[in-house]
């Protein structure tokens, strides 16, 4: 069957457009069309290629989605061996000087001779790949293997959108491009996140992710992991003028849409190498991908040839490493730490290792689910990672090294016998939460400082002067353990504290005294019950009227309060169920903290306006708006900013504007000041 001319035209048009948008999206990181539009073009091309199989082509963008799984990878003999580079083991500046010295000696240069020019680049942490283009078309991609023979991974490499399937404007017989396949950290995180939500295994680190994906026989699976590529050199070349410098080569490759990393520089002599090494070390953590060092290459290709090779390594290049960010060690124990908010975090106690520039003996396991997913057990050999200032973490277990003597699978509740390791209060894990928590908020030493600061804060008991520094001192000197202890502080104790003048001590004492007279809402808020903010505390106070009623309320009664859902209700019952918290509350009341109790009758009256919404507009003759608002709220009403069908009353004063008009339109009751006053009077 011959292919209609218009189909041939359309197919080539689509391939060109898709290749162009691929480049915008994957190489330039600047898409020009929405994803949906790209998908439409892509599907149109796929349909035409299925309909007319003769038109299929190795450089069609449709080749990037993966094909039939392979039985095995075919061996590929490299036309030019793929060498490795010598690694400078001295990670200090001296490593750079040593390399420069060796190069100068090999070239027979005197100390007076001008500095050598070097091309500096990053040492990417992935997998080396040779891309073979013949007449501009990608015909084969191979791993390094033993340097002589690698594996044919063309199908998988085609799924990497950054790698051109055709080199525009280059149809030389052979051009082999060498570089590194790697995974960006963000793509790595995203992939793992997706796996986690589906309960599937996660990848250990970006390097394993890249290597594992390329060695994957099913290219359709490879297509689902987003890999990237950076070119850093050449293999066999026929019919292509090789530029005179390494920098020139990379520039030419970049012009062919080959991804080349921008973090590269040409420098003069050892001092230039050192500056580059230091500069990159400083921004290592800010890069979007992992590197394990930098690479220095003599820039002149002529000098490179002169220097030649020793065994399998060129004399003209060296890798200068950074401190490793990952190491292997063993787990001695698993501890559980209590955070300032009561969150319980499992922490692996490790055989100390030097990683990321320091000795690490503790590494976080994040939470119970993570620990189980990674199946970290006492006695296991694990990979520890410490990148930059990030806290060290256990990224995975080396299962091949697990012995029969390892511990049981991790179970946080069993491990703690259900009790907080700091204070013995019960622990809970809320639905949908990853963390277990201690419920002894008021009592737990780990949460003490946080609890006290919250208790004294302005919207809680409002104890002026009881801030960060003072809480720190009082807790560290064991003068205050629970909020109740605040009320037993004396002049002599306070005045003896460091940097405490007598005047400020007496100010604090009077603020403490003053705070004893509070409201039920403030008191509830001050307790720091999880999920109970200021607004909820007010609702609870209004609804229950007394602390006793609140403390005895079950889930059903709690959820009857407007805006209190099952999670909030659960937090409240858990808080009051903890005897330690009840003890602190009794101690607070015994110390004289009190509030006006409302009687049942008062609350019945209060509810007269409860649930009613008011909108205030214009100027009232007697009252200010704030006064009117306070009185409405005191009787349980709410004041809103705009008029809607849900508004019960609009209180209109002089020069009321659009809100009044809107109220008239919607048929909402309209009051003047007198009307409001009589309503308030009746509600009392
Ligand atoms: S050049 C003849 N440049 O490091 C020189 N290699 O042993 C060939 N690598 O696994 C290598 N970044 O894949 C070169 N900018 C870079 C590199 C780099 C990472 C890898 C390479 C190989 C190892 C070298």
Give a verbal description of the structure:
With 684 residues, the protein is α+β, with helices and mostly antiparallel strands. 38% of the residues lie in helices and 20% in strands. It contains 27 helices and 24 strands. A hairpin with a 2-residue loop joins β4 (127-134) and β5 (137-143). The radius of gyration is 36 Å and the shape is extended. The termini are far apart. The protein binds 2-(butylsulfanyl)adenosine. 2-(butylsulfanyl)adenosine (IVH) binds next to β3 and β8.
What would you say about this model in short?
With 684 residues, the protein is of the alpha+beta class. The radius of gyration is 36 Å and the shape is extended.
Mean pLDDT: 91
The general outline is extended
Ligands bound to this protein structure: 2-(butylsulfanyl)adenosine
In CATH, the homologous superfamily of the largest domain goes by the name: DNA ligase/mRNA capping enzyme
Instruction: Please state the structural category.
Output: alpha+beta
Features of the shown structure:
684 residues; alpha+beta; Helix Hairpins; D-amino Acid Aminotransferase, Chain A, domain 1; 5 domains; 27 helices; 20% strand
Task: Describe the SSE topology.
Blueprint: H1 5-27, H2 35-51, E1 75-77, E2 86-88, H3 94-106, E3 117-124, E4 127-134, E5 137-143, E6 149-151, H4 154-158, E7 174-182, H5 185-197, H6 206-214, H7 219-223, E8 228-238, H8 246-255, E9 265-268, H9 269-283, E10 291-298, H10 301-307, E11 309-310, E12 313-314, E13 317-321, E14 326-338, E15 343-355, E16 358-364, H11 368-374, E17 381-385, E18 393-397, H12 412-416, E19 427-429, E20 436-438, H13 448-456, H14 468-476, H15 483-486, H16 491-495, H17 502-515, H18 520-526, H19 534-544, H20 547-552, H21 555-559, H22 566-577, H23 579-590, H24 600-606, E21 613-617, H25 625-634, E22 638-640, E23 649-652, H26 658-666, E24 669-671, H27 673-683
Parallel strand pairs: 2-13, 21-22, 21-23, 23-24
Antiparallel strand pairs: 1-6, 3-9, 3-10, 4-5, 4-7, 7-8, 10-13, 11-12, 14-15, 14-17, 15-16, 15-20, 17-18, 19-20
Helix pairs in contact: 1-2, 3-9, 13-14, 18-19
The structure holds 2-(butylsulfanyl)adenosine.
């Amino acid at each position: 069957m011959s292919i209609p001319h218009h189909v041939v035209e359309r197919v080539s048009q689509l391939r060109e457009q898709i290749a162009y948008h691929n480049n915008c999206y994957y190489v330039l990181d600047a898409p020009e069309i929405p994803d949906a539009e790209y998908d439409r073009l892509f599907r149109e091309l796929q349909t035409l290629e299925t309909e007319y199989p003769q038109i299929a082509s190795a450089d069609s963008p449709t080749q990037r989605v993966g094909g039939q799984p392979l039985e095995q990878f075919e061996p590929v003999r490299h036309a030019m061996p793929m060498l490795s580079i010598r690694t400078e083991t001295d990670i200090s500046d001296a490593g750079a000087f040593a390399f420069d010295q060796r190069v100068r000696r090999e070239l027979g240069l005197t100390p007076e001779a001008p500095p050598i020019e070097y091309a500096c680049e990053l040492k990417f942490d992935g997998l080396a790949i040779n891309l073979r283009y013949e007449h501009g078309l990608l015909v084969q991609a191979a791993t390094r293997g033993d340097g002589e023979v690698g594996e044919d991974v063309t199908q998988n490499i085609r799924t990497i959108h950054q790698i051109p399937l055709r080199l525009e404007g280059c149809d030389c017989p052979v051009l082999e491009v060498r570089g590194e396949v790697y995974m960006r950290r963000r793509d790595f995180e995203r992939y793992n996140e997706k796996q986690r939500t589906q309960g599937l295994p996660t990848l250990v680190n970006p390097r394993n992710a890249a290597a594992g994906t390329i060695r994957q026989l099913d290219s359709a699976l490879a297509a689902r992991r987003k890999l990237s590529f950076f070119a850093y050199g050449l293999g066999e070349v026929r019919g292509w003028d090789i530029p005179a410098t390494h920098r020139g080569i990379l520039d030419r490759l970049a012009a062919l849409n080959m991804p080349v990393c921008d973090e590269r520089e040409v420098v003069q002599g050892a001092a230039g190498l050192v500056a580059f090494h230091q500069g990159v070390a400083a921004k290592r953590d800010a890069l979007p991908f992992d590197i394990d060092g930098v690479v220095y290459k003599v820039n002149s290709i002529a000098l490179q040839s002169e220097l030649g090779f020793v065994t399998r390594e060129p004399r003209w290049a060296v890798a200068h490493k950074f401190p490793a960010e990952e190491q292997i060690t063993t787990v001695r124990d698993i501890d559980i730490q209590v955070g300032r908010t009561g969150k319980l975090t499992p922490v692996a106690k490790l055989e100390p290792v030097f990683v990321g520039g320091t000795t690490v003996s503790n590494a976080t396991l994040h939470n119970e689910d993570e620990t189980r997913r990674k199946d970290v057990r006492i006695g296991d050999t694990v990979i520890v990672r410490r990148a930059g200032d990030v806290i060290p973490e256990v990224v995975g277990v080396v299962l091949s090294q697990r012995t029969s003597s390892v511990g049981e699978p991790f179970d946080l509740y069993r491990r703690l016998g259900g009790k907080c390791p700091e204070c013995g209060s019960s622990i809970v894990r809320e639905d949908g939460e990853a963390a277990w928590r201690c419920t002894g908020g008021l009592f737990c030493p780990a949460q003490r400082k946080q609890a006290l600061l919250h208790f004294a804060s302005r919207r809680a008991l409002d104890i002026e002067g009881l801030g960060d520094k003072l809480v720190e001192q009082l807790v560290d000197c064991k003068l205050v353990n629970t909020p109740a202890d605040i009320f037993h502080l004396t002049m002599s104790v306070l005045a003896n504290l460091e940097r405490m003048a007598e005047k400020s001590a007496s100010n604090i004492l009077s603020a403490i005294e003053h705070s004893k007279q509070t409201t039920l809402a403030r008191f509830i808020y001050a307790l720091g019950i999880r999920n109970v903010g200021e607004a909820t505390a007010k609702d609870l106070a209004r609804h229950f009227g007394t602390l006793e009623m609140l403390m005895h309320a079950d889930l059903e009664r709690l959820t009857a309060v407007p805006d209190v859902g099952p999670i909030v209700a659960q937090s409240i019952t858990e808080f009051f169920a903890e005897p330690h918290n009840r003890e602190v509350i009794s101690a607070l009341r015994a110390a004289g903290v009190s509030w006006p109790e409302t009687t049942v009758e008062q609350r019945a009256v209060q509810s007269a306006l409860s649930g009613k919404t008011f909108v205030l507009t214009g100027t009232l003759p007697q009252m200010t708006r704030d006064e009117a608002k306070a009185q409405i709220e005191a009787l349980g009403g709410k004041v809103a900013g705009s008029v809607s069908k849900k508004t019960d009353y609009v209180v209109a004063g002089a020069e009321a504007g659009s809100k009044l008009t809107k109220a008239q339109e919607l048929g909402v009751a309209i009051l003047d000041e007198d009307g409001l006053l009589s309503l308030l009077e009746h509600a009392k």
